Every structure is written in C-alpha cells, then in structure tokens.
Input
Amino acid sequence: MRRILGMMGVIVLGVGLTVARAEDKTPDATLALHAGSVAVGVGVSWGGGTLTFKGKDYPISVTGLSVGDVGATSIEATGKVYNLKNLSDFNGNFTAAMAGAAVAGGGSVATMKNQNGVVVDLVATTAGIKFALGGAGVDMKIKQ
Output
C-alpha cells in the first residue's frame, strides 16, 4: 500500500511540474481578435484580428468562432500563440484542444490547435462572452 501511495505521489508531483512548466512557457506570438454588433442568440462568424509575431503585426481573418447569449456592439478577445516557428504555420483550421471554461468577470477561454501544431489559448476580454467552436473548427489566416 505504501508503495502505491508513494508512486501516486510521484505521479501527482510530475503532473504538477508539467502544468507549472506549461504556464511559464513564453508564447511565440500574441493574438487580438475583434468583432462588431452581435445580437442575442445569433452568434457571429467573427471578423478579424492581429497576430503579433517577432515584433511585426499581421492582419488575420477569422471564421467559424461564434459567441452565444450576448447582445454586444463590440467583442474583444486576446490570445497567446505557442509552437509558431514560421508565419505560414499559423494559417489553418484550429479545433478544440481543450474545452472552453468560464473565467472571472464572465468571460471564457478556449484552447485550439491547428494541423501544424500551433496552439492558441484564447481569452474573452468582453464580459459575458462564451466561445463556441464551430463543428468544422475555426479558420484563421493571415490576410495577403
């Protein structure tokens, strides 16, 4: 029994260290998203945003990310981008890597990952926003 409890303690410690390392990881880029007028229960396919990578800003288009249960004239979200080595790796279809969760102040968070392994941790900065990923994911592309 002691041996099992000791092994469980090592596993818990290992998981805790892994989570701590992930939280301390510096993002490769940041993301700012915005959308205009949204009616209650209708949702929005988003609009655009800015990817800041290696000190440069790149305009992006976003489709497939909706918000529910709000009536707002402006919606804002920010994100941290990980595993982005080349700018072209950002383009693609992002699917849920972790279920959305509520955060203090009534916002929500979503973690998404694309086919190139790029991960985005997205946080609503407008109170009352609840993210919903479309069934086909969220397409984000750098505008040319």
Observations:
- The radius of gyration is 17 Å.
- Helices lie at 2-24.
- DSSP finds one helix and ten strands in the chain.
